[in-house]
UniProtKB/TrEMBL annotation:
GO BP, sorted A to Z: proteolysis
InterPro entries (UniProt xref): Pept_HybD-like_dom_sf (IPR023430), YyaC (IPR009665)
Sample GO molecular function, one term: peptidase activity
Gene this protein is translated from: yyaC
UniProt xrefs under SUPFAM superfamilies: HybD-like (SSF53163)
The protein's name: Spore protease YyaC
UniProt keyword Methyltransferase, yes or no: no
Assigned keywords, A-Z: Hydrolase, Protease
Length: 209
């Protein structure tokens, strides 16, 4: 699918669903699975945001939840304890590039949108663009992206993020982290089925930070 995008033969794949949809967890898992690498390689998840703002805490919450899962095999950057945010983003990306050259990167961030889109989860090919909702110029992150619309855009964005309901952020963080965890475990099974010689110690895609 990435070859098609590079050749300009199709638009980048994009998928959206509301986190309260009946089959949201299943469908998000399926979409993440379809976007993960087809061969074993290093996978890095970069969860962007800060715990100093309720709305912007979606990324760090997801990062902390993923780090707490013992069986999650991808490298994770951006947690409540060690957030990746506007101030240190470029430094963290440089570190990741040095530590994990050629890694497949998943960028995760909160965003603002239309009122009827609040609660939507969006994922697809291409990077997340952190800071766009609050008019900040920050480097794009990821080969694929996962974003959650936590509140309404268009007016006093910083104030809106800081006054976002924690309940919606927590529900979205639970769904995204659980779906990503399930997708990566299923990808591991797929890869082992294709290449039975692959073991938990072979292939960076199975390494745990």
């Amino acid at each position: 699918m990435f070859l098609r995008r590079k050749l300009g033969l199709s638009k980048p794949l994009q998928y959206k669903t509301h986190h309260e949809e009946k089959d949201a967890s299943f469908s998000v898992t399926e979409q993440i699975l379809s976007l993960l690498p087809e061969i074993p390689q290093t996978v890095v998840v970069v969860c962007i945001g800060t715990d100093r703002s309720t709305g912007d805490a979606l990324g760090p919450l997801i990062g902390s939840k993923l780090k707490a899962k013992d069986s999650f095999p991808f490298f994770v950057y951006g947690t409540l304890d060690e957030p990746v945010h506007a101030v240190n983003l470029e430094e963290k990306l440089a570190f990741i590039k040095k530590e994990h050259p050629g890694a497949f990167v998943i960028g995760i961030d909160a965003c603002l949108g239309r009122l009827n889109h609040v609660g939507m989860i969006s994922l697809g090919e291409g990077p997340v663009k952190p800071g766009a909702g609050v008019n900040k110029q920050l480097p794009p992150v990821g080969d694929i992206h996962i974003t959650g619309i936590v509140n309404v855009s268009g007016f006093m964005e910083y104030f809106v993020l800081q006054n976002t309901r924690l309940s919606i952020v927590m529900r979205m963080a639970d769904l995204i982290s659980d779906s990503l965890h399930m997708a990566c475990l299923r990808k591991k099974i797929q890869l082992r089925a294709i290449s039975p010689t692959i073991s938990a110690s072979d292939g960076d895609i199975f390494k745990i930070q």
